[in-house]
């Protein structure tokens, strides 16, 4: 299986990001908009989806489904990212201007 640099980078990004949901879940609880129910479940589900999607990018047979799933996941987590930017919540020492750049 040949892995392009871009696909490898995306795999690493999503697997590491998803793993962080389980390593430091409190960080992700902070960026959950208050109107969303069951923050612990949502953090765990989104973390698992990031890991699965990232790994799914590797085999050709699952690549397309993983790419679609990750795109849908990014849409699903947009409210948390928007809340993080508008509520000025900084995590992992990310500068505030970078919170706004993440949105598009």
What does this structure look like?
The chain has 104 residues and is mainly alpha-helical. 73% of the residues lie in helices and 0% in strands. It contains six helices and no strands. The protein has helices spanning 5-23, 25-30, 39-56, 60-76, 78-86, 96-102. Helix 1 (5-23) packs antiparallel against helix 3 (39-56), helix 3 runs antiparallel to helix 4 (60-76) and helix 5 runs antiparallel to helix 6 (96-102). The chain is globular, with a radius of gyration of 14 Å. The mean pLDDT is 94.
Radius of gyration: 14 Å
Oligomer: single chain
Structural class: mainly alpha
Mean pLDDT: 94
Percent in helix: over 70%
Low-confidence stretches: none
What is the overall shape?
Answer: globular
Topology:
Elements: H1 5-23, H2 25-30, H3 39-56, H4 60-76, H5 78-86, H6 96-102
Helix pairs in contact: 1-3, 3-4, 5-6
